[in-house]
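hey so i finally got around to running the thing on that chain from the lab meeting. sorry it took forever, my laptop kept dying and i had to restart like 3 times. anyway pasting the input first so we r on the same page abt which one it is
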Amino acid sequence: MKTRLFSLASFIYIAIIAAFVFYLDLGEYTLSIANFSLHLPVAVWFIIPLVLFFFFSLLHMSFYGFLRSLKFKHFFKDAAKFENLIIDLLLEKEPKSNFSTKEFRSVEELVKMLKNHQKNPEFPKTNEILDLIDGVKRGEYVNLSKLKLEHNNVLLLQNEKNRINNDINYAYAKVKNCYELKDEYEELAFENLLKKGSYEQIKNNKVPKKAYQVLSLFKRFQNGDLKLSEAEYEVLLAHSNFNQEQYLSVAKMSVKALQPDALLGIFKKIKEQNSEALRAYLYLLSEFGLLDELREQIRSDEKEFNDFKAFLVLREKNIAVDLVSFIQ
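ok and heres what got predicted. didnt touch it at all, straight out
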């Protein structure tokens, strides 16, 4: 309460009490202490304690008001210095400001923490948040639920991406029942599913796969990162809708991944259904040394396969050929 308001209220209160007591006309009372005696009306004896209480209360308020004024004097000076602190930090200079109040000294340390992203043992809650932020920036999925962030918060969105990248089962669940991808998070989940998911998860997904995405699955199969049975390999290849170059790439990367007879049988079926797979089949014939079948395929086809014809000539002369780079 402000001093003026307190004084006014006290005066009104004392006046009301005095008027009431004088109205009662309670007579007089004599206070005797040893040889000292004081004879006053009873109404005055009622008013004296109130006046003394008012006086000491006013003295108390004035004293602490004086202390607050000293504090705020330093507070306002510190506020004037605060801009200099910000300027020094932005210019990568060592701050020169010396704050007088502990509040601004605390603020100074917090601002330094924010600028330098360094923890301070005096602020455990802020340190915890810095740890969470660092985790998100490192690509980790962290628990942000207790921070109560809004759904469009940058940290929350990045944390969602981290979870998709780190948890293949979560990524699979996110697109499991999708027929098309609606946002960047579903696209990221689908991309991770193709990179890290099992074939069981991938084939259960209903989102149409583009040719280059199916090609990436065969690359995973080549690297041993994706397990495919011969039947699964054939189904995946049959539904790939590859062009000639892509079929050839799959044939090259599958030479050591499947048994020759199984691989030749699969590509023979595919090339009978899709002529784009013919060069891939011819490549496998060349790779596995089935030269008579290769000659027959070249002779019976209307197209000219000069590179395969050249390969046959070189083989007849026992000249070594790097078939991977020779057949393009």
